[in-house]
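Hello,

Following up on my earlier ticket. Below are the two sequence lines again, exactly as submitted.
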Amino acid sequence: MTTMGVVPEPSLHGMRLGWVLTEDRLGHYPEFRAFFTRTFDLDRVGLARPGYWQAPSGTIYALVFIGRSGEPFPSGVEINAVVPALEPLDELLVDRDLWAFLRWMIAGIGGGWTLDALEATGRLFRIPASMDADRPLS
Amino acid sequence: MTGLDLPETIVRQWPFQPHFARVNGWRMHYIDEGAGDPVVLLHGNPTWGFLYRDFVAPLTEAGCRVIIPDMIGFGLSEKPVREQAHSLDGHIANLTGLLRSLDLHRITLVCHDWGGPTGLGFALSNIARVKALVLMSTWAWPLPPAEFHTRIFPWRMMHAPLLGPYLLGRHNALAGRGVYLSVVDRKRFQERAQAAYEAVLPDPASRLLTWTWPRWIPLDDTARALDRFTWLERELSACALPALLVWGREDDVFDPTTFIPRFRQLLPQAEGPHLVTGRHFLQEDSGPEIAAHIVTFLRRLA
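Thanks for your patience. The regenerated structure is below:
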């Protein structure tokens, strides 16, 4: 298993960005936007390039940040899997990777946003990836 | 033509002729049954007109015209795919567009959940068209929020950035498990109704409003809809329309001990409250009983 976290831009030769999730209102709770701004150095990088994040599965995801006139940047984000250009997505793997991403995000935001609360929410709604309990963060 | 395949068990419970209207730039589905003074029944998040299936026969048999619209973004209505397409004012305008296009007068508005702020928004800006109000498990003021809505687990975590699109979008957590958790007789709900709420939100993009509406609930004085809710509270406190309050005894979202007294303060003329078996989605547990309360209330007004 690969350690998860922020990684440099991978080679995109022969690859495509497979869209998996969009957030239109990243600053709904401002601490979420602050986390991404801090983690991906967005005050300096701006829209120049995506951020890249590697999941425990080894798959890398491109975070394409979105600007919206009149709102602090970033207003939103798209998460795209970097996958072989002509291959379909492995939906189960993507779902587990997204859950790992959300756990990583919540751990980084902190404060009242706890992993315990996230895991409890996942179990309450019977999210399959959340049922694999007590996994380490990396 | 709904464009959606509803399970046969659901179609049998919802045999009504679909109607569609172009309102405020969107395609809205509604049913229109019976004849008489109109009763407009408004659902909230994440339900649709099906929530009121047990109300149609008693109300039409009592001499009412029953109109049940599906909010834009839910049910058989058009579902925008960008969060910015949704606002409280926009949804009030959607409803206003429908009720004006039908040229309805002497309306009784039955409001539940987000059907409250939207229905009351219409009523208080079109007061001459409205005869009476029925309020169930809803609110109409800016602050304070329900205690339930202040908790990170499960409420705020469920719709937080990226978590909303994942939990409620990819996994349809609110229309399925969420409603299931907010009824009293869960077994009956699962057997008879859960598929109706899940089937009309078949894809993640179709579920956008399930995590967008929670983000419109004011939690503090920076909220987007603060001014509109302030207006709703002010206008409602000056409103002399006959009103009826119906609440679920087991409601743990808009708990009756907090929300009923607030409505009684704003609408001292309100009848009730009639407490029935029910959590937030009280229509699922006590539909015929609530419909009977409404029929009795309307007969007294006649």
